[in-house]
Amino acid sequence: MRHLLSAADLSRGDAVLILDTAAELASVTDRSIKKLPTLRGRTVVNLFFEDSTRTRISFELAAKRLSADVINFAAKGSSVSKGESLKDTALTLEAMGADAVVIRHGASGAPHRLATSDWIQGSVINAGDGTHEHPTQALLDAFTLRHHLRDGSGDLAGLRVAIVGDILHSRVARSNVLLLQTLGADVTLVAPPTLMPLGVESWPCRFSYRIDEVLPDVDAVMMLRVQAERMQDAYFPSALEYSRLFGLDAARMAHLPEHAIVMHPGPMNRGMEISADVADSPRAVMVEQVANGVSVRMAVLYLLLGGRQEETS
Ligand code: NCD
Fold first, then answer.
1. Digit-coded pLDDT (tens) for 224-249
2. Distance from C-alpha of 310 to C-alpha of 1, rounded to nearest angstrom
3. Domain at 135-286: CATH architecture
4. Where does the pLDDT of residue 312 fall: very low under 50, low under 70, confident under 90, or very high at 90 and above?
5. CB of 42 closer than 6 angstroms to any ligand 1 atom
6. Where in the chain is the domain with CATH 3.40.50.1370?
7. Catalytic residue at 134?
8. For the chain, what is the mean pLDDT?
9. Is any ligand 1 atom within 6 A of the Cβ of residue 169?
């Protein structure tokens, strides 16, 4: 595989290989010197046209732990704000010898455009495109689920996961549904009808408009942020009503089975989709999700770029 564009491109074998590799690489993080020489001399460019905290830092750290050179390119403050196109930006990166381009873009399909062009020769990794996909987030979520609810190996057969909130605008939800289904888990999407994507009936999962009916029967619940920046219309009457009907607070969390975990890809809107006491509770694994993100992205970079190491040696 040369690129990672969609969770749908991953077979069960591919996904398990990435998760197993991530588990091995996670041990690097426990050492006093957190570095492997694997990608020495390779260049990874972080090309971010949209805001990001976790994903950008996580890719940067992952590439650095594998000894790659890292260039962080944020559209704000670059020639993109002078009107430079994706093509000219890509040609510039190619001229500078980028081996991998990690791209986040507001337009769904931008990473595919880059990967199918002849603008760049290196690997393209989708770090979130519009409302479409975010495959490395799905991988880190699968890694976290496997660690907590399985014995840390194999797939996720039979695991029950609810994904709750603004599904309509969520690339995290789409990538998770695709990957979790590949790994054998059973996913239920929960949202108000206005925030459920059109054609959800054809997605490989169940869906419900009532969170309280779903929570007692899941092993994990993944809460999603209401993405106000992607909303031109009013999708629900008020924030208060939304949090009352779809937010996870302590009273609702009590209906989860005892072993179930609470996840959130971040950034969280405390008080909206998740209450502060739930976010800070021991059942919430958000901090672990972030840590696992580094290991999973190390694995992706290692598997996409490491195999071509011999060409340079
Ligand atoms: C998400 C994203 O950007 O898609 N965050 C992330 O990458 N961890 C979700 C969001 O913005 O709500």
1. 999 988 888 888 989 999 999 999 99
2. 16
3. 3-Layer(aba) Sandwich (3.40)
4. very low
5. no
6. 7-133+291-312, 135-286
7. yes
8. 94
9. no
pTM of the model: 0.95
Model confidence at 39: pLDDT above 70: yes
- Give pLDDT, residue 27: 86
> How far is the CA of 49 from the CAs of 69, 71, 262, in angstroms?
20, 14, 30
For ligand 1, mutation pick of 50, 55, 102 (most atoms within 8 Å of CB): 55
* Amino acid code (one letter) for 130: G
Atom 7 in ligand 1: residue holding the nearest Cα: 55
State the average pLDDT over residues 55-66: 97
- Measure the CA–CA gap between 193 and 282, rounded to whole angstroms: 31
Under CATH, which number does the domain 7-133+291-312 receive?
3.40.50.1370
Confidence category of residue 31, pLDDT binned at 50, 70, 90: confident
